[in-house]
Design brief:
- The protein is α/β, with parallel strands linked by helices and 177 residues long.
- It has a single domain, classed as Alpha-Beta Complex (Maf protein).
- It is built from 7 helices and 6 strands.
- The radius of gyration is 16 Å and the shape is globular.
């Protein structure tokens, strides 16, 4: 058994939890050591396109590697919004790098309610809009929009975890990548 050090490009406990859970499932029975660092995404606080969201996740992973170069993996997780079919949907990109490889995956997406969409169009970040509409506090570090809207059938960490696992495909199949 080996210890694998993972740096999450965020101090958000939800992002740290989903990284730990995803890496633990993929690399079991190895010990997974996870640490969060606060680094900039280089994009808007509320990314509004698929491309901007992916760029934010990639920038976070690369910036985390600069700040904490002594690790095995660096992971950037960026939540975003897009309106590909005229309706606003939420999703996230996961971007993982190691010393010699990279992997990425996108979560599933879900439509946001009209009241949330209106607030986002006014320039309010999704987490803040959720707190305003649902009378919550700091929901983005808890169950997030996905948890609120699914009545906690899927919380934010559970929502991100499959994408973490999918982003690790190139690392567990190096001969194919």
């Amino acid at each position: 058994m080996v210890a694998i050090k993972v740096i999450v490009a965020s101090k958000n406990p939800v992002k740290i939890e989903c990284a730990k859970n995803g890496f633990t499932k993929v690399f079991s029975p190895n010990e997974i050591l996870v640490e969060g660092v606060s680094v900039p995404s280089g994009v808007a606080h509320q990314p509004m396109t698929d491309e901007e969201t992916l760029t934010g996740a990639k920038n976070r992973a690369e910036n985390a590697k600069e700040v904490q170069p002594e690790a095995d993996f660096w992971i950037g997780i960026e939540g975003g919004i897009a309106e590909p079919f005229g309706n606003m949907e939420a999703f996230a990109w996961i971007y993982i790098i190691s010393k010699d490889r990279k992997g990425k995956a996108r979560t599933a997406s879900f439509d946001l309610p009209p009241q949330i969409q209106e607030l986002i169009h006014q320039g309010i970040e999704l987490g803040v809009a959720d707190d305003m509409v649902f009378n919550r506090s700091n929901s983005k570090q808890k169950n997030g929009a996905v948890g609120i809207l699914t009545h906690d059938l899927i919380n934010r960490a559970e929502y991100y975890e499959p994408a973490v696992i999918l982003a690790l495909i190139p690392f567990v199949n190096p001969e194919l990548y």
